[in-house]
Design brief:
Largest sheet: none
Low-confidence stretches: none
Order of helices and strands: HHHH
Helix content: over 70%
């Protein structure tokens, strides 16, 4: 199984995990909504989703881990910024939402890159 397939599977699993929640007490990341609000969990999951896409495009296009990490981090930050700019008229620009999106993207990017690095060393 090649790396692009593994990255796609990780992205699909994160998406399914986010969509499969039927219990109102649990949020997107199986965390109680009283601990972390559902909105913040959604931003974290969205950042993870965009990071998978950004990393796979950056790494796949250039076969370069540095470019993969760059696009894996930049893509969710750009997506979160655009989303918050669209929310200015309704709820205002929320820096915490952008931070949760960025953290989700950064953690996912570094996790993917860790596994890519292990595969390259073998």
């Amino acid at each position: 199984m090649n790396m692009k397939t593994k990255i796609l599977i990780i992205g699909l699993l994160v998406s399914l995990m986010c969509l499969s929640q039927n219990d109102s007490n649990l949020g997107y990341m199986f965390i109680n909504e009283n601990t972390i609000p559902l909105d913040k969990q959604a931003h974290f999951a969205g950042g993870a989703f965009f990071a998978v896409g950004g990393y796979s495009l950056g790494y796949g296009a250039y076969e370069n881990r540095k470019r993969g990490k760059f696009w894996g981090i930049v893509t969710p930050i750009l997506a979160g910024t655009v989303k918050e700019l669209c929310d200015i008229k309704t709820t205002g620009f929320d820096v915490k939402d952008l931070a949760y999106t960025a953290v989700g993207g950064i953690l996912t990017t570094h996790t993917i890159d860790f596994y890519v690095g292990k595969k390259i060393k073998k």
